[in-house]
Amino acid sequence: MGQQSLIIVALSSLLLSISLFGFLGVWDNSNEATASFFEREQALNVARSGVNMAVTQLRRQKTWRTGYTNVLAAGGRVTVRITDIGVDSVRIQSQGTVNGFTHPILVEAKLSSIFPTVESALAVFGDSVSFTNSGKSWTVDGRDWKMDLSGVASASSVHGIGVQTSKIEGDVEKQVTANGVASNVMGKGSTPSVGTFGTTNLFQLQQFYKDRRTILLPAGKYANNAVFGTPANPEIVHVPGDLEWSGVISGAGILVVDGQLVMKGKVSWVGIVLALSGDVKLELGGTGTPSLLGTVWVGTTDPSKTTNVHVNGTPDVRYSYEALTTILANLGLLEVEIYKYYE
To answer: Out of 103, 169, 215, 220, which could bridge 43 as a Cys pair, Cβ 3.0 to 4.6 Å?
Structure first.
């Protein structure tokens, strides 16, 4: 009887040990499964961060296709590829990695009319361009200026003056050199900084902004004091005809002029200035000191017309990436339309 009791006790201990080891094994497996689930979820979050980073960059620069390679994000690393899949449409492939666990995300997005491709401080459209000046105390600067004008920022420079063809580029270079103002045109490349820009539908862009105008300003001459928007609350001002400003006028946003543009007062504008008509004459300066920060686009889509740019007085036209992104963001024009999203 004693031996049977010992055997029963031994068997019970063995069964208890087996149960305990089994329980601990299940506990370990459960911990491992929980850790694996967490890391897979974290890899998904890292991939989502990569998508957000790409969308943010595309809002600022619709031509950006560089992507990211193994960069730190949200506690892991992410690699993002951007490829074109159509006109103004891209595919974003983001892969997040955490401790060997990866998770891919595929996104397709529409970029049309998000942000104009800016390649110069002053873009001059037309098959024939005449550039003249009265005086030499002015600046057309394609370096990237901070919005507060405290100095040059970190974004890449663009050309001071941009034109549509290499022939016009040569013509404008000769004109500013002959006028003794080559050093007044600064920016990307050599001095004077004149270069060509890619294909842009100026009329379509003008129409896009006109359709979203917030202020309709009658054509005419204005010598009063006025404010049209601020960087925090910009406006889209549309002038259906010629415009001459000679008062103390400031504004921020997008100025769209369907005609000649003359600025010769104490005028300051932050954002985009776009003037389009048949025979354009852009006069900057006169007795005032106009200051335009962002980008200025002037010209004609009529091949029989000449775009006349006359710089007078002491104005300055300066490129600013910060000003452009701030203005367009505050106008709600930097949205990226995502139409496909796969996790």
So the answer is: 103
Residue 270's pLDDT band (cuts 50, 70, 90)? very high
293 inside domain:
yes
Indicate if 231 and 165 belong to the same structural domain. Answer: yes
pLDDT digits (tens, 9 = 90+) for 154-183: 778 999 999 988 999 999 999 999 989 999
Tokens of 115: 């942000």
Residue 49's domain comprises 2-112
Residue where a domain terminates, one of 48, 79, 112: 112
pLDDT of residue 286: 60
Q: Residue 64, CB half-sphere, CA atoms under 13 Å: how many?
A: 18
Task: Tell me how many domains the chain contains.
Answer: 2
The answer to whether residue 341 sits within a structural domain is no
pLDDT confidence of residue 11: 46
Taking only the tens place, the pLDDT of each residue in 313-332 is 788 899 998 898 889 878 87
Give this prediction's pTM: 0.68
Report which residue type is found at 32: E
Q: Is 4 helix (H, G, I), strand (E, B) or coil?
A: helix
φ and ψ at 327, to 5 degrees? -65, -50
The Cα-based distances of 113 to 94, 271, 294, 335, 337 in angstroms read 24, 16, 17, 9, 11
